[in-house]
């Protein structure tokens, strides 16, 4: 999808069918809730020597994988290990935002471990060079990341006094939730059970995308109050991705209370934002864009402190945008299409070839469209066990989740009124009843499975 109209004036912004920027990831949970009775987050930071390549024997180097640990409530000799399978971003951010783990640690007598995903945060296999070329990026795959987790778990169980008998519960959301589920499937002896939050695949129907025409870069830049005005049509790509990401993120964090997970936002931010949008057909492109720019300001300027909008700062500053783009260009291919019916903008069919070309231009790699399904078994996971899939029905990713229980120990939970991973967040007095029940149910499954594991050992 290289742009297009060099003889501009006529700007074609297509928020189209591509994985770009669509981070499923969002999943950690947030911080500053208004109530203050949270268990405080405190952890020790460690670094583990990981093999750069787990599956071949030529590249024999190692790197330091960061992980965070809290043993304040841990009952050694039997207390479980809650293991957060880091996704695409700085692990401290996920750690700070996964209030659920902090809230249940005491009740379960659990050790908390947050493991960083390679190529994000501080866990860079080739230091500052890690993103410099395709050769170094070659080891950024979910398979390598899972192997990192499995190796780390084995080492922790061996070296931490009292951990030998501990059951390990993998927890994650979004891409991290997929990793948690896959860890259980691929390394069943490492993880006794797993808890995965939403997004086993991805949804396109709820995605809002834009397709609009403007008179030029300058108009757009002014309208959106951009810090760095758009100068070339190529920059529209970045702008487009930024908008798209903002949108999806906004829907994901549609929480019932004021929150500061990705950005400081009002309660039910989608409602607030939608006031600014004109859905009627017949509005001009400019009106449409004006509404969008107002909406975007709700996201970026709720506090009123923003002097201008900075498109280099993605809506999710703690997430690794480039890394996720690379992953979507290799094995995490997630076609995002709009059909013009279930969503509000123009139809854009998924164009694999165009996406592949864009990947090649950027990284010198081409996606393997079916690989993830082959290696992880797609949706037919009936042979597995002890997995909870929780989904929020307000989450734009929901329709990609596992939403129906497949067996007694493959449990799907639907949270009415829940946005992306609401259940992974801290308890809040504003939580809908459904979330409170969900968390309690999740803990009940944990306890049941821990007990079963103890008796079969
Ligand atoms: C790792 O590979 C390098 C170059 O291929 C080699 O010189 C070195 O001896 C190897 N190290 C180990 C521990 O195998
Ligand atoms: C997470 O919390 C710790 C301790 O409060 C803090 O030092 C760190 O900056 C936080 N990290 C992020 C990304 O918010
Ligand atoms: C952010 O809000 C403040 C207060 O309403 C306003 O003065 C400022 O222009 C806004 N910034 C942007 C970029 O819209
Ligand atoms: C925009 O964000 C980038 C990345 O954080 C930063 O380097 C740059 O200084 C920011 N620009 C402005 C005008 O704030
Ligand atoms: C799913 O996998 C199981 C075995 O793991 C197999 O028996 C079943 O036929 C598969 N179902 C589908 C729809 O492919």
TrEMBL record:
Which GO terms fall under molecular function for this chain's record?
dipeptidyl-peptidase activity; serine-type carboxypeptidase activity
- Reactions listed under catalytic activity: Cleavage of a -Pro-|-Xaa bond to release a C-terminal amino acid
State its location(s): Lysosome
Keyword Phosphoprotein in annotation: no
EC number of the protein: 3.4.16.2
Q: Which residues cross the membrane?
A: none
Instruction: Write down the superkingdom of origin.
Output: Eukaryota
- Give the keywords, sorted: Carboxypeptidase, Disulfide bond, Glycoprotein, Hydrolase, Lysosome, Protease, Signal, Zymogen
Cellular component GO terms, alphabetically? lysosome
Sorted alphabetically, which InterPro entries does this protein's record hold? AB_hydrolase_fold (IPR029058), Peptidase_S28 (IPR008758)
Q: Name one GO biological process term.
A: angiogenesis involved in wound healing
Secretion signal, residue range per the UniProt entry? 1-21
Against Pfam families, the record matches this protein to: Peptidase_S28 (PF05577)
Subunit record text: Homodimer.
Protein family: Belongs to the peptidase S28 family.
Query: What is this protein for, i.e. what is its function?
Result: Cleaves C-terminal amino acids linked to proline in peptides such as angiotensin II, III and des-Arg9-bradykinin. This cleavage occurs at acidic pH, but enzymatic activity is retained with some substrates at neutral pH.
Q: What is this protein called?
A: Lysosomal Pro-X carboxypeptidase
Q: Which organism is it from?
A: Sinocyclocheilus rhinocerous
């Amino acid at each position: 999808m290289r742009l297009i109209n060099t003889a501009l004036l006529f700007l074609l912004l297509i928020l189209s069918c591509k994985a770009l920027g669509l981070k499923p990831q969002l999943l950690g949970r947030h911080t500053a809730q208004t109530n203050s009775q949270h268990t405080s987050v405190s952890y020790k930071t460690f670094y583990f020597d990981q093999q750069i390549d787990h599956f071949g024997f030529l590249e024999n180097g190692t790197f330091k994988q960061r992980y965070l640990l809290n043993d304040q409530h841990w009952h050694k000799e039997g207390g479980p290990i809650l293991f957060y399978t880091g996704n695409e971003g700085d692990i401290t951010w996920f750690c700070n935002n996964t209030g659920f783990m902090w809230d249940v640690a005491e009740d379960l007598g659990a050790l908390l471990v947050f493991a960083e995903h390679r190529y994000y945060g501080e866990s860079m296999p080739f230091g500052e060079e890690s993103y410099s070329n395709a050769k170094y990026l070659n080891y950024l795959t979910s398979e390598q990341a899972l192997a990192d987790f499995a190796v780390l778990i084995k080492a922790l169980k061996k070296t931490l006094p009292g951990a030998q008998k501990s059951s390990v519960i993998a927890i994650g959301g979004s891409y991290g939730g997929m990793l948690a589920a896959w860890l259980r499937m691929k390394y069943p002896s490492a993880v006794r059970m797993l808890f995965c939050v939403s997004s086993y695949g991805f949804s396109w129907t709820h995605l809002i995308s834009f397709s609009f025409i403007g008179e030029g870069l300058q108009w757009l830049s002014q309208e959106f109050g951009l810090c760095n005005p758009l100068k070339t049509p190529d920059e529209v790509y970045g702008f487009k991705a930024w908008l798209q990401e903002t949108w999806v993120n906004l829907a994901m964090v549609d929480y019932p209370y004021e929150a500061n997970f990705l950005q400081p936002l009002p309660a039910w931010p989608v409602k607030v934002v939608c006031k600014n949008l004109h859905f009627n057909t017949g509005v001009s492109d400019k009106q449409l864009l004006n509404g969008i720019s107002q909406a975007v300001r709700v996201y970026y300027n709720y506090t009123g402190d923003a002097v201008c909008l900075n498109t280099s700062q993605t809506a999710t500053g703690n997430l690794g945008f480039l890394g996720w783009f690379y992953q979507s260009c290799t094995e995490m291919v997630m076609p995002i299409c709009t059909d013009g019916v279930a969503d509000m903008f123009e139809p854009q069919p998924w164009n694999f070839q165009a996406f592949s070309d864009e990947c090649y231009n950027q990284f010198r790699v081409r996606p393997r469209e079916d690989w993830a399904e082959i290696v992880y078994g797609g949706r037919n996971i009936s042979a597995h066990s002890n997995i909870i899939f929780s989904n929020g029905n307000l989450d734009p990713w929901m329709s990609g989740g596992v939403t129906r229980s497949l067996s007694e120990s493959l449990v799907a939970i639907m949270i009415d009124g829940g946005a992306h991973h609401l259940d992974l967040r801290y308890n809040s007095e504003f939580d809908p009843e459904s979330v409170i029940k969900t968390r309690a149910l999740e803990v009940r499954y944990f306890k049941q499975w821990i007990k079963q594991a103890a008796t079969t050992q």
